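Fold it.
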Amino acid sequence: MLWMWLVVETRKRFVLLNQFLIKLISIPERLQVNNIKATNKCEVRNEIKRITALYNELCDVVDLINDVFGAGLLISVIFTISYVLLYSIILIDFTVFKIGSSSDVWIIYTSIVWLIENFVKIMALALAGENLSSEANKTVNVCYGLINKLENSEEIRQKLIFLIQQALDRKPCLKASGFFVVKSTMTGFIVGSITSYVIVAVQFLNEMQTHVTQ
């Protein structure tokens, strides 16, 4: 799936960006004003400026992914919910209401397999979105850690604050055409929707079964 590959590759770029920032934190002698040289100070400032530009470009990539794949992702999630609902009702028909004969047991196994497949698809989408969002938001924590290691370097501190503000303003995340954000909370929304529909369907099937027996 192209969408999944793009999300994974974009997350890797955020990981590399955060690792580079962490390397700045792990070299405290470059950031201590009492010992820092003007050349090192300028170098660190330029590195942070370059990282800020890269972060903005990665946010643009995430926005582009949302623009290109948002509608398709929304349709995919809707179809996945429909399939889960359909196979759930089929499973209930053949297990609870005993519709069909013993030779139709293959329908039960097929429904279980398709239910698992669709739930795995939902979890994979949610996990990919959650990992990207958490890695992008990690930049803010890394910057705060870097600021706490600074002593009196106001110029570098301002560069880091600007990066933090950019990260908080952009908030890169994956969206399905603006209807919902693709992250772990999406699974709760989908499971809640499916549960409500299944309950209504079971009540309807129960009433039909009652009328037939009468």
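The first helix runs from residue 2 to 25.
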